[in-house]
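Lab notebook, entry 366. We have the chain sequence and a SMILES string for pyridoxal-5'-phosphate, and the next step in the workflow is to get a structural model of the bound complex before anyone spends time on docking refinements. Request logged below.

Task: model protein plus pyridoxal-5'-phosphate, output structure tokens.
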Amino acid sequence: MTTKPQPKPWIAQIHAYQPGASHAASGAPLVKLSANENPLGSSPAALAALAMPHIAADYPDPDARALRETIAAVHGLDPDRIVCGAGSGELLQCAVQAVAGPGDEVVFSRYSFSLYPLLAHRVGAVPVFADDAAYAASVDNLIAAVTPNTKVVLLDNPNNPVGTFLPPAEVARLHAGLPPQVLLVVDEAYAEYVDLAHQHAAFDLAAAYDNVLVTRTFSKAYGLASERVGWATGAPELIDLINRLRGAFNVSTSGQKAAIAALGDQDFVATSRACNAAERARFCDAVAALGNHGLSASPSEANFVLVHFGGDVTAPAALTALADAGYAVRHLPGQGLPDALRITIGTADAMTRVIAALRTLCGEPA
Ligand SMILES: *Cc1c(COP(=O)(O)O)cnc(C)c1O
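Result returned:
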């Protein structure tokens, strides 16, 4: 007879989500280039909204109506086809939970958001890793990984941790290759960093088909990761399912207010995109210049770059050198990337120091 509560076997085998590091092995605090946060911070308008008093004793608006209406106005969407979440992570979990259970399969590309296998295991489903193409998601391999047991395909676009982006035509081809009963979730956590011309395509897919859900977040370009606000758009039936599963008062009053104010400051988003693009290009050039030492960067349309170490300088050595320089970056050996580091694009000053540390490690003049 057992003397303690026993977890479900599929829960017993999983670990808690592992966030990016913020401290050196010595315990010293580091500048975080490990969690893809916005190095510019938050919009002043969002910070002003957060400074405004609210009645903390009262529950927040359970339906986040004003926030959904603001999102709808900014993106040209129907507020009734939007649901808000405690970060997009909550909505991704609800989407998987709504359609997948024990024995079902959840398909995603081999190198994808580390949360995805956990989402499958949390509901007893089987995570299925589709083969990548040079680390990026492969539409053909994703379609080939679908079986009669597949309930949902998760596509982070841009991808985390690789940074690659599938253009709208490829996402449409993926959707066209899926059976209509398979849910396609397009996780657009980094959408604000991609080409403006490509930012609306997934919304159009979600408006046209019953089996497409698109998620967005305020955690990255909007610089509000601490407030835990995300949202999703899709067919009314999908939104209804998520509303049944999400926390009843899942987005705090301060989160709703900050997100509304942040949506009103698109200049901040544009500045974030421009600074990121400039520093990302400079960083990728610097990595390319170390190509003779085995370094290379995956092409990125996000606010981070996956740097591969294929020579004498190893990823663990670079991880240590960057920590010694004061920067935490992400090493993901558990995701099958022992020879790479995911480095968030920080401020210009941070990137100058990161480049100098890598050059010094390679024996080149900083
Ligand atoms: C950061 C990130 C998210 C956002 O998570 P939140 O819960 O909204 O903070 C979602 N998907 C991917 C791929 C991410 O990298």
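Notes for the group: The longest helix spans residues 266-288. Worth checking against the assay data. The chain has two domains: 21-41+267-361, 44-264.
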